[in-house]
Specification:
Elements lengths: L1 E5 L4 H12 L3 E6 L12 E4 L5 H8 L4 E4 L8 H19 L3 E5 L24 H15 L4 E7 L2 E3 L9 E3 L7 E3 H13 L6 E6 L8
Parallel strand pairs: 1-2, 1-4, 2-3, 4-5, 5-6, 6-10, 7-9
Antiparallel strand pairs: 8-10
Helix pairs in contact: 1-5, 2-3, 3-4
Length: 213
Amino acid sequence: MNIVVFGAGGRAGRQAVAEARRRGHQVTAVVRDPARHGDLTDARTVAGDVTDAHGVAHVAAGHDAALSAAVDLSVPPYDFFTTSARALATGLAQAGVRRLVVVGIASVLPGASGVPLMDEPGFPSEYRPLSLGHAAGLDELRARDLDWAYVAPAGDFDHDGTRCGRYRIADHADPTSRITYADFALALLDEIDTPRHHRAVVGVREQSPTTPS
């Protein structure tokens, strides 16, 4: 397949690129400044802005699926995630790309109580603006005619862990859960290769060798 990855310079994006190439796919890695990402040698690296619908359509043309791991912490989260969701939906439609997989955040998943984790008592207030931004972007996707999957770690990323080659779907958010970027990338690419979730939010957690899938 031909896959376009927005936000390919970040940790989740890089692992998605690596996993896609491991599976034999052709990858276009979209970053803001290709000169800063000369190490993305196993993909075609191009400049692009995920908040610009025309630019999204241009770089996505000729691809079979898209993946977005993009984030810009220099602008308010609400503005970035709503604008990027609209631009992706519009631009991908113009390019004829129907499948989009988005890297999400655990706080929009239901917690143990059934309400979103960000609405449960004790959720850190400093993370609420980012969570609300993600939730608003998700609402934009729900309002669009696009086959998307919003994939989030059940808790957070294990920044230093090594790839174990397994994961499992989580039934709710768990702040104590950790998954490596490499194992999370397995879930992202599975949703492109053999989509199981359509217009749906998916939580992913680590699968230990003794845990059934």
